[in-house]
């Protein structure tokens, strides 16, 4: 799902108001996702998602990184 969101955003031109009118810009996103296991705390899930987001940005941005939460 997030990969589809990422590609949709990357392929959609966004209009930004300027004093001269509207300028079209490109926007990209990076996302970090974590798969939840039974018994894991919300803090553990958020920490894993944060690490995935860091990996996505370090890997060149405009990407989705997902991994299963480590036990």
Q: Can you walk me through this structure?
A:
The chain has helices at 2-10, 42-58, and strands spanning 14-18, 21-25, 31-35, 64-68. The protein is built from two helices and four strands; from the N terminus they run H-E-E-E-H-E. Strand 3, helix 2 and strand 4 (64-68) form a beta-alpha-beta unit. It starts with a helix and ends with a strand. By secondary structure, the protein is an alpha+beta fold. The radius of gyration is 16 Å and the shape is elongated. Strands 1-2 form a two-stranded antiparallel ribbon. Strands 3-4 form a two-stranded parallel ribbon. Helix content is 37%, strand content 28%.
Strand and helix layout:
Elements: H1 2-10, E1 14-18, E2 21-25, E3 31-35, H2 42-58, E4 64-68
Parallel strand pairs: 3-4
Antiparallel strand pairs: 1-2
Distance between the termini: 25 Å
Succession of helices and strands: HEEEHE
Q: Proportion of β residues?
A: 25-35%
Strand adjacency order, main sheet: 1-2
Task: Please identify the structural class as seen in this structure.
Answer: alpha+beta
* Poorly predicted residue ranges: none
Biggest sheet features:
2 strands, antiparallel
- From the spread of the alpha carbons, the general shape counts as elongated
Mean pLDDT: 90
Counted beta strands: 4
Treating each run of at least 4 consecutive H or I residues as one helix, how many helices? Answer: 2
Gyration radius (Cα, Å) is: 16 Å
Helix content: 25-40%
